[in-house]
């Protein structure tokens, strides 16, 4: 058994189902992964491969840790962005980039994964001794699975792949969860029970902990409104009377209203990173409680009054028990009716202000009309959705309502154009019964659009929605193309829609095509309209 076969054996033992990336890497070239029972998927661009693995990790709440592989040199350079995105989104991946042979590892200007991946991974190692293959990869999987989940990288110099490896009996790694300090739970309960208007803010940690039920239970127990981060979108059902929607650069008015009305803001499973794509906690006349499984998040950007470290589900369950034991089963804070009525009033006024674009009959089609039709046409029990960076995000985040956990894969701090295509391909691989839809613009499809062919070749029937307004976002940079024809030329189904009255029917056809196993690209010719066109309606 050589090192290549040993790595493939470990991948299979760890439950890896997919090896995604690009040759030349012996895990692909020598059929080692496939012979070990791991499905190889070759993409058109390395970073899209990492995005697919990111999608798998996130739709499975971090339980499915998959593997990425690529060529030394150019392949590793191309893949850095995808690994960086997974790092930013706390998505667990084990990346196995090839490296230059050991004799050339430190020769300038050869690209070193060992050096350059360190800033965008949880751990980075170089495997130089074939006797260490077992322990090295055990560390990588253990690192990726536990604590704050993020990519672990093992660079394998290309000459090491072919060296003999010792026989071994591999023992798979495990996942652990950290519980909260009981004293911190007691203090948090004191603050929440003493609040006139507590507001809960749920991040992606709620998804990774599968803490959706105790989050709803705590909200209903406290009669407290719930907002989510964009990464946490769908952690709380947005049709619930206490829902405020998701915070982002473009967010529902009721969210902003209640965040600033709250006297206690409880962030659970979030980082409270200072970003344009999240909320800004009020810094005066309120109490900020921060619960996260990563102590490094606490006080990083915003000073918290209380910190509760631990797995989101364990924290929420402990709080529900603590508060329930104190107040009994018949708790009535007397604010539920007033709070839910105020949410509905603010939300309805906001929707009324935006109704002219959401219901617009103009041509080219108003992009908000496309989002409204997606929202009303897609079955929320079956959908997984996302939106790319820029205007697509700003259109979708506030107006596409989600009701089921993990039915929206948002993203945090920054993101790469074209991220959504790989993200939904990963979601579809793990949840083939779901309708997986991503919305992007002209810029995003230019970055990763060729990997639509990967979806066709690998039988991954996603729906790509392209908002084609013949420009790059708000930068007045003219782009053009007939993207529906492109989809057809790649072997998928493409449709170009110019009439707003045909939007819903096109979406329904797309869903049926994916059920038949065909990837779909819907190209909507849209107006050059952005969120910035409505600065008066924030």
UniProtKB/TrEMBL annotation:
It comes from the Archaea. SUPFAM superfamilies: DHS-like NAD/FAD-binding domain, Thiamin diphosphate-binding fold (THDP-binding). GO terms for molecular function: acetolactate synthase activity; flavin adenine dinucleotide binding; magnesium ion binding; thiamine pyrophosphate binding. The keyword Cell membrane does not apply. One of its GO terms (cellular component) is acetolactate synthase complex. Residues 388-523 form the Thiamine pyrophosphate enzyme TPP-binding domain. Pfam families: TPP_enzyme_C, TPP_enzyme_M, TPP_enzyme_N. Keywords: Thiamine pyrophosphate. One of its GO terms (biological process) is isoleucine biosynthetic process. Residues 1-106 form the Thiamine pyrophosphate enzyme N-terminal TPP-binding domain. Its cofactor is thiamine diphosphate. Residues 185-319 form the Thiamine pyrophosphate enzyme central domain. Belongs to the TPP enzyme family. PANTHER family: ACETOLACTATE SYNTHASE CATALYTIC SUBUNIT, MITOCHONDRIAL, THIAMINE PYROPHOSPHATE ENZYMES. This is Thiamine pyrophosphate-requiring protein. It comes from Haloplanus salinus.
């Amino acid at each position: 058994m050589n090192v290549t076969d040993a790595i493939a054996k470990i991948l299979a033992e760890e439950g890896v189902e997919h090896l995604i990336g690009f040759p030349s890497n012996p895990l692909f070239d020598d059929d080692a992964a496939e012979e070990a029972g791991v499905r190889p998927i070759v993409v058109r661009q390395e970073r899209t491969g990492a995005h697919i693995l990111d999608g798998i990790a996130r739709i499975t709440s971090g339980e499915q840790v998959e593997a990425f592989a690529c060529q030394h040199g150019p392949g590793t350079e191309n893949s850095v962005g995808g690994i960086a995105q997974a790092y930013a989104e706390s998505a667990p991946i084990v990346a196995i980039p090839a490296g230059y042979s050991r004799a050339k590892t430190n020769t300038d200007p050869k690209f070193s994964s060992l050096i350059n991946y360190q800033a965008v991974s949880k751990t980075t190692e170089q495997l130089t001794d074939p006797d260490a293959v077992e322990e090295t990869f055990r560390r990588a999987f253990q690192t990726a699975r536990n604590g704050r989940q993020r990519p672990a990288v093992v660079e394998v110099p290309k000459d090491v792949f072919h060296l003999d490896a010792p026989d071994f009996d591999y023992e798979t790694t495990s996942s652990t969860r950290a519980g909260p300090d009981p004293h911190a739970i007691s203090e948090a309960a004191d603050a929440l029970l003493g609040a006139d208007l507590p507001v809960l803010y749920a991040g992606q940690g709620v998804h990774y902990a599968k803490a959706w039920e105790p989050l709803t239970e705590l909200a209903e127990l406290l009669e407290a409104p719930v907002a989510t981060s964009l990464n946490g979108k769908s952690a709380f059902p947005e049709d619930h009377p206490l829902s405020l929607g998701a915070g982002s650069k473009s967010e529902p008015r009721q969210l902003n209203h209640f965040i600033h009305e709250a006297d206690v803001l409880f962030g659970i499973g979030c980082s409270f990173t200072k970003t344009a794509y999240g909320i800004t906690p009020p810094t005066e006349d309120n109490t900020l409680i921060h619960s996260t499984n990563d102590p490094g998040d606490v006080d990083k950007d915003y000073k918290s009054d209380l910190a509760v470290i631990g797995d989101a589900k364990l924290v929420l369950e402990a709080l529900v028990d603590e508060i329930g034991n104190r107040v009994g089963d018949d708790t009535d804070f007397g604010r539920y009716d007033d709070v839910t009525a105020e949410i509905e009033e603010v939300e309805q006024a906001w929707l009324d202000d935006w109704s002219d674009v959401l219901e617009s009959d103009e041509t080219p089609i108003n992009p908000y009309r496309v989002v409204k039709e997606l929202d009303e046409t897609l079955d929320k029990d079956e959908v997984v959705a996302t939106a790319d960076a820029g205007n697509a995000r700003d259109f979708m985040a506030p107006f596409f309502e989600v009701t089921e956990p993990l039915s929206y894969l948002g993203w945090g701090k920054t993101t790469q154009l074209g991220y959504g295509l790989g993200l939904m391909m990963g979601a579809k691989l793990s949840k083939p019964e779901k309708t997986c839809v991503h919305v992007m613009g002209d810029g995003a499809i230019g970055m990763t659009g060729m990997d639509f062919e990967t979806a066709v070749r690998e039988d991954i029937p996603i729906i790509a929605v392209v908002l084609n307004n013949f420009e790059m976002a708000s930068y007045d940079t003219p782009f053009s193309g007939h993207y529906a024809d492109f989809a057809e030329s790649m072997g998928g189904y493409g449709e170009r829609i110019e009439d707003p009255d045909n939007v819903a029917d096109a979406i329904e056809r797309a869903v049926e095509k994916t059920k038949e196993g065909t990837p779909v690209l819907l190209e909507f010719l849209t107006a050059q309209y952005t969120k910035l066109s409505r600065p008066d309606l924030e």
